[in-house]
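S.,

Sequence below, as promised.
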Amino acid sequence: MQYSLLSQFQGGFLGCAIGQLLAIDRHHPHRLILAEKSWCEGSLASLELSERLIRGRLQPEDWLGCRPRQGQVLAVLPIIFSDLDDPQQLRSRLQEAASAWQLSPESAANLFVWGDAISLALSETVVFGQLLESLLERSRQTQSPWVETIAQISQLVGEGAGLSQATAQLSRQRQNNFAAIAIALYCFATTPQDFRLCVSRALRSGGNSQLAAALAGAIAGAHNSLNGIPIAWRLQAIASEQTQPFLQQAERLFSLWSGVYQPHRQPAPCQAIAAAGTLQPRPSLKIVSQNSSAQTFP
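The prediction came back faster than expected:
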């Protein structure tokens, strides 16, 4: 199914926010609820990075001003969306971030593979198991340390491995962020068209499950768009003041990417405008019966 790119931008950012806000209901352990939580450093850095990106070309001091101590994969989400159609530019900017933040080669590789994963999820040509196949090909071309792990995820998905088995194997990774990305990719690859199930499984994976749920929400939301998020979660998140900055971020970044809209302006309120004579105020609404007699409803 084709989705508008704006809806995919909104789905990616709101999905990431929902993943961070989800919690297991203490009274009903099988149910998930949206709870009031503080955002991790990576999400706050993404808001600041988005503002600086919209203002113009990023300078080294801009990267340093948005440096998070954790959750770097969440911080670079605006960069991934703004350069989704230019893989070389995307990799160059992610390298700038890794250098400015003095990340290790392994942490830098995390940014690169996550950037590739989101851009592939946004593509209409990548469906079901093709994402892992395409991601594995890109990783081999760049000689990424992720080659072995992506092949392992692909094998787990092909064998129909359950969440507990996949978590046990993927959580052995040395780096916590590495494991969270791997689990998010596994959850998305097994349920690419079910946002609720994808994020729910990531949240129940143990370890750094909150980061895994946020990453799973970002990739599932980007792939399935805003409309793919369950309506109860979507309405609750949209109504929350906590998530408003992330929705505005998505809309302004889409404006920047398109080159048509002005990202500095606030989104106009939604209005319904009909052609003359097609919609009438209720007091003058008329229904014409088969007998050509008109009846007016108060």
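The chain is about 60% helix and 5% strand.

Coffee later?
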